[in-house]
Each structure stands twice: as C-alpha cells, then as structure tokens.
Write a structure and sequence with these properties.
The structure is a homodimer of 300-residue chains.
Chain A (H helix, E strand, L loop, with lengths): L6 H16 L3 H15 L8 H16 L6 H23 L4 H18 L10 H10 L4 E2 L1 H9 L3 E5 L5 H14 L3 E6 L10 H6 L7 E4 L14 H9 L2 E5 H8 L6 E6 L3 H7 L6 E5 L15
Parallel strand pairs in A: 1-7, 2-3, 2-5, 3-4, 5-6
Antiparallel strand pairs in A: 6-7
Helix pairs in contact in A: 1-2, 1-3, 2-3, 4-5, 4-8, 5-8
Chain lengths: 300, 300
C-alpha cells in the first residue's frame, strides 16, 4: 500500500503521541517535531504508510535517546489481558464454532488497543469486549475461505501486532494447534510503538503452543527487505499466514502470499483500501493472492 | 492563545482539506504539503494556532494560484441557511427569553459548520438543529453576565466566523437591534477558508440591521497588528464585543476587551483552554477582561 497525503499529519500525530507518553520536555518535543517535518519534506509516497511512520519513531529515538517509550504500557497491556484470558477461553468453549469465535477474539484484541485510553486504563472491561464481539459483525468475512485454505495447511505463520493483543491471539492459536497446525509466532526484534517483542511473547506464556521468531528489525509492519533470513524462511515455508493489525496489512497487502488479515480499520485510508467503513473489523483474505508459493525476496 | 505541538498536524490537515476541496492534482497537492512542512519547521509556538494556520492557506495560495477555493461552498452555505431562516426566527419568537434563544441559535450556526460534510450537504436538517439546541446545554454559560453588560452597552461589535453561520447570527443580531443596540458586523476583507466576507454579508441580507465593516485582512481570527484602522476604531469604540468561533477566540482571548465568545470547542486544545470537553458549546466572557476600555494597538 502506498502513502496518501492524509497520512502525513497522521505520522506527525503518532510521533507527538509517543512524545507525550515518553514525558519528554516541551523543548525536546519541539526539536523532534521540527526534525521530523524536515525529513517528511521529501517523503516517498510510493512507500507504505507504515514505512513512512517508521521515520517518526527513528527521529524520536535519535533526538531523545529513548529506545522504548512504551515499555511500561506494554507490561500493563499484557497483565490486563492475562487477567481476563481465562474468560476469553470460556467464551470460545461455550460456542459450537470455536475456531470462528477464537478468530473474533483475536480481532477484538486489535480493537481494544484502539478503544482504550492508554494513559488511564487500569482494567479491561470484559463484558464490553464480549458485547462488542456479539454486536459487531465482520465487514469483510472470508472465514469460509480461511477454513478451506486451512485444510491444506500445516505450517502457519502468525504475524502479531501489539503487546496485550497477543494474549487474545493466544486464544485463536490454541484452537489452531488443536487442529494439529504448527504455528510460528513472529514478534519484533526491537521495540517499535507498543508492538509485541520477545519479552511480550514470554509474558503472554506461549510456552509450547507456538515457536516464537523475531522479524529481525523494529519496523512498523513487515519490511521484507529489512527482515532476517530466519523470518523470510518461515514466511516462504508457511502454507498460510495470519496477519494482525494495520501495519502488517499496509506492508503485506501486495505480496501475493496466502495471507488472511485480521484487523480493525482505524483510519479512513485503510478503510478505503479494504472497501469498508472507518472502525469496521475484517477477516480478509489477501486480494493479491497469486496462487503460487509465498515467494519473497529482499529486493521486492 | 499560544500554539501547541498538537496544532502542527492539524494545520497540515486543514491545508490538505483545502487541497481536496479545490480539486488540485495529486502532484500539486504534494508540492503544497512539502512547502508547508518546510515553513512549519521553524513554527513560532508563541503565535496563536490561527496565525500559524494562516501559513497553510498562504502556501496553498502561493503554490496553486487559487484565491478562494471555498467560494462555491460559501454560496451554498448561505443559501441553505437562508432557506431555514424563517424557521429559526419562529423558534426564537416561540419562547419567553428570546435573546437567550437567539444567542443559542447563533452558536448552533457555529456547530453546523462542524457537523456537516461540506462536500455532500444539500440541505440543513432543521429538526436536528432544534433538537441539538434543546439537548445540548452550554458547558460555559455566562449569559447573565452578558445581559448585565448589555445594559451599559450601546455599540456592539459582532465579529463573524463562517458563511452560512452569519445567517444564524442574524437572528441574534435582530434581537440586539430590538433592544436599541447599534451593531457593527465585521467580515474578512479577503477570502480565508469559509469565513464570511462582504459578499456573504450581502447574501445574508443584513440590510439596515447592522453596518458591515471589513477587518482589513484575510487572517484566520483577528490579527490586531494586521487589521485596518477602521476595524480597530470599531474595536475600541465597542462597549461590548461578540466573537464567534475558534479562530476569533484563539486570537482575542488575551486582549482584555469586553468580549463574549460564542463557539463550539472543535478540538482538544480549545476545549482545554476553555475548561470544557471536546464538542462542548460555550457562551463565555473573556477571562482576560481588565475592566478598562478595549484599548488595542497594532504593536500588541
């Protein structure tokens, strides 16, 4: 996906949010914004919004020297999600189509990241999550195609999005494992926003449920040309890829791999790309699917 | 009011909205945004958000050569508002405290500017406007103080905001004239966003109701140092000033003049400054009021 004009103010806004969370002084914050504006003057609109958003976080790190401003928040997200994890499992166990409900739980994990006030939240409202799960239909629902593709799949690459959210993913992955699928979970090698890293996967206690690998970078989404060989190997090997959240959709929507995207459309641009409305949730197969293997190269 | 970091993406967003409305090509739009980013690198945070937003429109005009991208929309706003004007008058006539209701109608004029989709609107939903008037209490209501101040006031300067909205203002001004007040209406000398100009005042048929003067510039809000002597004379002469909308609040909140601000808080920054929530509506007296005359100088 390419970057639109409307992504420019959003990139700046994301960086300002990070500055607020990090508690940087006003003076330092202004310096970060000024340097970011300078960098964005020559923004490459052919890159994905995710890739251009990386610029904001790179400038933030360079100017402030702060490597992981979301560290404490990620710990909190995981703890809150783990608190309600048994309840999430029960919801899945209470229905007939467990895999479908588990997928919806995973999408709910992406939704709550959006809905909560990250500075104030101290509890996750389980009842509201369940209510939303029941009341919000999927604007794109390719579950049947997913189920079909799953029949021929053994190796599944599960590309995670946020800390906290990965506990919700665990519910879905558990169901996949019950179906004898081999799930590999990918997390970021280094911190970027509140994206899940190895520490988060450990906190979420994936244990033997899924092998955890790192992407080899700290990009928003998946930057193929900057990914580790180990990650790319799993990407190619996977019969089926599950991709969570916007950043991964922005960077993987044109790869032609067998990907299913689970996310909430958190901006107009993504909603347009998916043909849905702002705030809609989707379980969407890749439109760029070529039918071939997940061949990727670093020059792609 | 000074500019905050969070105003920076908003300034860019406003310019992008103007680019969309003007129908500029993608290439030209990118050029505008790039030049704006360059200008904003050295943004003066001590200036008001309105003054810094001016930069976006200046760059837009310089790069595109388009002087009044909102021209057609302003005509449409006026026509739609004039269509329901008799109904607005009836609402005021139907209540006991006509002046208070008329003030609320004027505030509603500021609200509808925000609520409508400027590209799609073809009618104004009168019933919804009235429902909102009844259901939305003023988050700050200094009407009693206004009423008190009005007793000692003859000359009123009414600083307008948007085209269309000025038809709603007319309902309020009519009630003030009934109380034998002399109302002078100020509009912009040249186009800026959808702000009212002389052409709009003529379309709104103010006729003998109020004398119309121009600010001498095309700034968002009121830039004292850039205003005409004629405007400043009326500003000083006024016993009481009524100021509509955010831009005027941003630029006049520290002047110490006897001003009442009627507006909807359309962003978090303004809401904070007013001590209210986003989307709240207010009828607020100036906190900077010194009790002296409305003395201003161009060096202020």
């Amino acid at each position: 996906m390419k970057t639109d004009l409307e992504c420019v103010p959003c990139i700046i806004k994301q960086t300002i949010n990070t500055l607020k969370i990090s508690g940087c002084s006003n003076k330092l914050s202004k310096k970060v914004v000024s340097e970011l504006l300078q960098k964005l003057e020559n923004i490459d609109y052919d890159l994905s919004p995710a890739a251009n958003s990386d610029i904001g976080y790179i400038v933030f790190r360079e100017v402030t020297g702060i490597k992981d401003p979301y560290y404490d928040l990620k710990r909190k997200y995981n703890r809150l999600a783990l608190d309600i994890y048994p309840k999430l499992e029960k919801v899945v166990d209470s229905v007939k189509n467990k895999l479908y409900m588990a997928a919806k739980v995973a999408i709910a994990g992406n939704v709550i990241d959006f809905g909560i006030d990250i500075k104030k939240v101290n509890t996750l409202d389980f009842n509201k999550i369940i209510q939303d799960l029941q009341n919000t239909p999927l604007a794109v629902d390719n579950y049947d195609k997913f189920r079909e593709s799953l029949k021929d799949s053994i190796n599944i690459l599960y590309i995670t999005d946020n800390a906290g959210e990965i506990v919700f993913d665990k519910v879905f992955i558990k169901e996949l494992v019950k179906l004898d699928k081999k799930v590999v979970l990918s997390v970021k090698s280094n911190p970027i926003i509140n994206d899940a890293t190895l520490e988060d996967a450990i906190e979420a206690k994936f244990d033997s449920l899924a092998r955890v690998i790192e992407t080899g970078n700290s990009n928003i989404g998946i930057n193929i040309s900057d990914s580790s060989d180990a990650f790319l190997e799993e990407f190619k090997k996977a019969d089926l890829i599950i991709s969570k959240g916007q950043g991964n959709f922005e960077t993987l929507d044109k790869t032609g791999a067998n990907i299913f995207f689970l996310l909430m459309a958190k901006c107009e641009k993504i909603a347009r790309e998916l043909g849905v409305k702002h705030s809609d949730i989707v379980f969407a197969e890749s439109k760029a699917r070529t039918g071939k293997s997940n061949a990727v190269s670093k020059n792609q």
